[in-house]
Amino acid sequence: MTIHDVSLHTLQGEQASLGDYSGTTILVVNVASKCGLTPQYEGLERLQKTYGDKGFSVLGFPCNQFGAQEPGTSEEIATFCSATYGVTFPMFEKVDVNGDDRHPVYEELTAFPDSDGEAGDIQWNFEKFLVGPDGTILQRFRPMVDPEAPEVVDAIEANLPG
Q1: Among 53, 90, 97, 109, which has the minimal tally of Cβ within 10 Å of its Cβ?
Q2: What is the pLDDT of residues 70-87, one digit of tens each?
């Protein structure tokens, strides 16, 4: 099984998988609406607009495990993201990224080390994982790394398909 095989549900409750994005470079991010890092949605959306037609997509996974900063329902999350940040990238159901109920996508992602060689639990909201078109996890960026930081943009550009 690869990360592309994991079953998901969209924020609207529809069945999906990361395999739906096979051939696309994706940036998987655990997001929250009431976090000091929530303004990162702006940079994530700019990445989506800049690279979305070049085989790239941001994928947002709401998570309420850090300071209960994503308490809303799926509908409330969708409304907040659209109205506040104009989010157009795909959003998925709220998931646990750490602990006994960690979502299978995050089982795969958290096994991948960051630039310091550290794998393991997600540290906070807005941790980012770059996944190649073939489903290979390429890079891990910790929460304080801005979505538009040069190392993120360079990694995206270097791994766009075709």
Answers
A1: 53
A2: 999 999 999 999 999 999
Mean pLDDT to the nearest integer, 22-39? 97
The predicted model scores a pTM of: 0.97
Structure token pair of residue 81: 């993201």
The neighbour count for residue 107, using CB atoms within 10 Å, is 12
Q: Are the beta carbons of 125 and 66 closer than 8 angstroms? A: yes
Degrees, nearest 5: CA angle 31-96-29: 30
Angle at 127 between CA 123 and CA 129, to 5 degrees: 125
Q: How many residues does the chain have?
A: 162
| Cα-to-chain-centroid distance, residue 64 | 14
- In the chain, the number of structural domains is 1
Evaluate whether 103 touches 97 at the Cβ level (below 8 Å). yes
Q: Can you say whether residue 120 is alpha, beta or left, with left for phi > 0 and alpha for psi between -120 and 50 degrees?
A: left
Q: Is residue 81 flagged as an active site residue?
A: no
The 8-class DSSP code of residue 46 comes to H
Do residues 16 and 6 lie in contact, with contact meaning Cβ atoms separated by under 8 Å? no
CATH code for the domain of 28: 3.40.30.10
In the set 35, 81, 131, 152, the catalytic residue is 35
**Structure confidence at residue 34 as a pLDDT band (50, 70, 90):** very high
